[in-house]
Amino acid sequence: MIVNFALSFIFASLALSSPLTSSNPLGLGGQFDVFARNVAISSGCSTTGTASCHNTSAVSNTCCFEAPGGLILQTQFWDTDPSTGPSNSWTIHGLWPDNCDGTFSENCDPSRDQSAITSLLESAGATSTLSFMQTYWKNDPDDGSDEELWSHEWDTHGTCYSTLEPSCLPSGSPSGTDAVAFYETVVRLFQTLPTYTWLANQGITPSSSTTHTLTSLENALAAEAGVTPMLTCDGSNLNEIAWYFNLKGSIIDGTFVPIDSPVDSDCPSSGIKYPLKTGSPVSTTSVSSTTTTTTTTGTPTSTGTPGPLPTKAMIVAIHNGAQVGGLLTLGTWSTQTLATMTLAGSTSSFTMTSSKGSCGVSGGELTCGSGVSATSFTAISSGGSLLVASGGSTAFSSSAVPSGETVETVFTGSSEAQTYTLAIVST
After folding, report:
1. Each residue's pLDDT tens digit, 52-100
2. Which of 47, 85, 224, 306 shows a CA-CA span of 20 to 30 A to 256?
């Protein structure tokens, strides 16, 4: 199942929509602190300039501007014969840098090929990224091992990103840092694209008998994502999707700007099947300001009354009725990949610990770290969710809403300009 799309169009112009940052609207079995967030690796590039494929003149600094491969596809599988991955999630295929005219290059630098991806990620400390890949980045067993697919995707596509050239990396970066950054970005972007849940939200779930029109599938996904992807079918069976982007900045830490697919879907106009997978579902959680929804079968169902305090959880920020990131390991608010917190106690009194140390409030500021004195929080039920409360109040605030790589200090109460609540989402 190692393929690429044959593109024959001329890419003239694409309308930009709102930038997609690294929030995870689904959770996909738990968000993960990844290597790029725990170890100092940064492109040093701005994300406020022109998006790839939208420059009007040649760009000299291709460390901070993806070229020529500025038309980026995040591709996902829906494998059913044989089934791979969770039964309630699509799986990762890859992240491909097509040229702006629709052509593409492959295997751009064999000297940077990688074959032992597990060892590479473990050596880099990217074990959370690896763990996620082992569940959500699956190869067809008839085509080889998962590791072979991971290696193929880096060798074939990852080595073609201009912003991942070794000369673009921070000085002194170990060999293989380019590949580690690639895998982390693939995981982080995939976490923002919950295709299964978006279809389920529109009433479309796998079935052994139901058929769909291509228009209904595309319209359902566009209603959720704001852009139309490219769908691919194997005969009448839906089996792959491609989400298209331009990029501001570097593939390491840039802003992905979602766009409509410039390529028509490769499916029949009607009679499309979305077949069932065998295997087990994973717990996948989405959060709104009033409800927490847990999906373990084909259709999302409200949890109703919140259950007991989980021992492992993400702390998700709800701002103006929508999920906007959550807490990182230092207790800051961000739209980057969220921390998994350890909660100890009960809803009436619990402590919270990240991988950095205990979390506590001092002078009205929330922090987590090795020298922080733990604060006792409470969990208050609200509309089917468990909200973190400090001093009896569920209000938290920051001076601004984070985006991209920015993080914001979290304060208790509503003294700052942006007020929100923090929902506890079991992992």
Report:
1. 999 999 999 999 999 999 999 999 999 999 999 999 999 999 999 999 9
2. 85
In the chain, ranges of CATH 3.90.730.10 domains: 35-273
The domain made up of 35-273 has a fold known as: Ribonuclease Rh; Chain A (3.90.730)
Whole-angstrom distance, CA of residue 414 vs CA of residue 281 = 39
- In the DSSP assignment, the letter for residue 15 is -
Q: Among residues 66, 93, 212, 240, which one is catalytic?
A: 93
Catalytic residue among 54, 66, 106, 157: 157
Could you give the 3-state DSSP secondary structure of residue 256? strand
Q: pTM of the predicted model, to two decimals? A: 0.64
- What are the tens digits of pLDDT across the range 306-352? 568 899 989 999 887 677 889 999 999 988 888 899 999 999 999 99
Which part of the chain has CATH 2.80.10?
284-426
Active-site residue 147, yes or no? no
Q: Residue type for 377, please? A: F
Q: Is 153 tagged catalytic?
A: yes
Q: Which of 198, 375, 401, 348 is nearest to 284 (CA)?
A: 198
Which residues are within 8 A (CB) of 232 and not within 5 positions of it... i.e. 6 or more apart?
Answer: 5, 238, 239, 240, 241, 242, 265, 266, 267
Q: E strands, 18-177, where?
A: 71-77, 91-98
- Could you confirm whether 408 is annotated as catalytic? no
- What are the DSSP calls for 356-402, one per residue? TEEEEEETTEEEEETTPPPPPBEEEEETTEEEEEBTTB--EEESS--
What CATH architecture does domain 284-426 belong to? Trefoil (2.80)
Distance CA 365, CA 34 (A): 25
* Tokens standing for residue 36: 């790029």
